[in-house]
Amino acid sequence: MIIKEKRFPSSDGKHQLYCKIYEPEGEPCGLFHVVHGMVEHIERFDGIMRAMCENGWVSYGFDNLGHGKTVNDDSELGYIGGYKYLLADVRRFTAEMKKKYPGLPAVLMGHSMGSFIVRNTVTDKLWDKLIIMGTGGPNPAAAPGMLLLRAEILRNGERGYSDFIEKMMFGQYNKGFQEDDMLAWLSTLKETRDLYRDDPKCGFRFTLSADRDLVTLLRLCNRKSWFTRANMNMPILLVSGSEDPVGDHGKGVEKVYKGLKAAGKDVRMKLYQGYRHEILNDACRDEVIADILAFAQEGL
Q: Do residues 63 and 137 make contact, with C-beta atoms less than 8 angstroms apart?
C-alpha cells in the first residue's frame, strides 16, 4: 500500500486539516472514511485503515479541528470553534476523495465523538454505508447540562475550562472498574491505556466551547427526527464494547439500535462482551476489524 500525508483546507477557513490516506496498490474496491474521537488523533486508527487498505479499500481520515496535527500550535488543542465545522469537514473531504475515485462505494465510520459527528453528517447521501462505533444514546442530563455550560462559558469564556463541567460530563466513566487507573474505562489492556497516557496528542482538556459542541452533537443525533430521516436509507452497523460507559454499558447503544429499527432502517448491532470504549484497542480488535470488513464488503 501507499500511505500519504496531506493537508486539506478546513471549512473554518483558518486551519489545514492533517490527513492520512492509505491507497492499495491494485484497483480499489471502495472508500473508507474514519472519523476519530475526542482528545485523540487519526493516527491511532492506523490498524483498521491498514487492514481495510490491504483488502482493497482506500482508507483515510484527518485530525479534527482542535486535535492532533491540525492545530497551528498546542494552545489550540481542545478548541474547535463550532460543531458545524466538524460536519462540513467530513463532507468536504469525502467529496474530494469521491472526485479522485469516482463510482466507488463509500463507507463512513466514526468512533466516540466521531460517532456523533458521522451520525449528524451521513444524511447527505455521500455514503453508502455507516458504521457507528462507541456511541451514546439519548441523555436526559444533556438539556440541563447545556444550561450549566452556557453559564460557565459566560463566567470563564469560550476557551476557558471548568473542573465542575468535566466532572459532571465524564466523572462517572470509571465507575465499576476494578483497576486503580483513571483510564480503566478505555480498554481492558494496560498497554493501550499506557500508550494513550504517554501520547502528548491524547488526553488534553476540552475547552468549554468544545464541551458545548460535544453536547450539541449528542443532542442532535438523538432527537426523534434524526432516526426517521429519509436520507439514511443505507445499511448501518452499530459496534461497541458491552462495558463502554459512553454507551451506558450497552443500554445507550441498544436505544439507538431500537430507534433506527423502529424507523425501518437497515441496522444491525454487535456488543463485544466484556470490552470497553476503545474496541479497536482492546483484546477484541481482530474480531472487530473482521466484522467491519465483512460489513463493508457485503453486497459488493
A: no
